[in-house]
Amino acid sequence: MTRTEFFNLLPALMLALLGIVVSIVGSGYDTGTLTAMGPGFMPVALGMVLLVIALGLGAGAIREAAPEKPLPIRPFVCAAASIILWALLADTTGFFPAALGQLLLANFALPHHNWRLLAFKCIGLSIGAYLLFVTVLGLPMPAFG
């Protein structure tokens, strides 16, 4: 197995390991039956689903012998920078400016931009996130500064 083949299989292996661990931990609780589920039923079921997904992912990685591609740096840098920008702006400028800045910076990871669609998505996601986190969940953060 070459290094590239191993790295292609690594996500599937990690997902399978997670599914197995979740199933083992969940089996320590009472699973109950389908009509009277116990606290361990959902962890075991979700662990098995993760394992099946991992098997499919691994089969796809084995079938796909893609040539080596260079590591895309721009998505990693933009995603990390957008999280750092949120952390720096959230306390000083408020929720909306921090969210808009984070979403705009994260979208620079994509190769092409439709600026009108990007503006609608950023505004919609910011409003939705504000409603969810501040209004519904009660996160104590002002909308602006």
What's the topology here?
Layout: H1 3-27, H2 41-63, H3 73-93, H4 95-107, H5 115-136
Helix pairs in contact: 1-2, 3-4, 4-5
Description of the molecule:
The protein is mostly helical. The chain has two domains: 3-63; 73-136, no CATH class. Helices cover 72% and strands 0% of the residues. The protein contains five helices and no strands. It has helices at 3-27, 41-63, 73-93, 95-107, 115-136. The N and C termini lie far apart (54 Å). The mean pLDDT is 88.
Could you give the distance between the termini? 54 Å
Tell me roughly what share of residues is in helical segments: over 70%
Structural shape? flat
Total count of strands: 0
Succession of helices and strands: HHHHH
Number of continuous helical runs? 5
> How large a portion of the residues is in β-strands, by DSSP E?
under 5%
How many separate structural domains? 2
Largest β-sheet summary = none
Radius of gyration: 21 Å
Concise summary:
This protein has 145 residues and is mostly helical. The chain is 72% helix and 0% strand.
Name the descriptors.
single chain; 145 residues; mainly alpha; 2 domains; 5 helices; 0% strand; flat
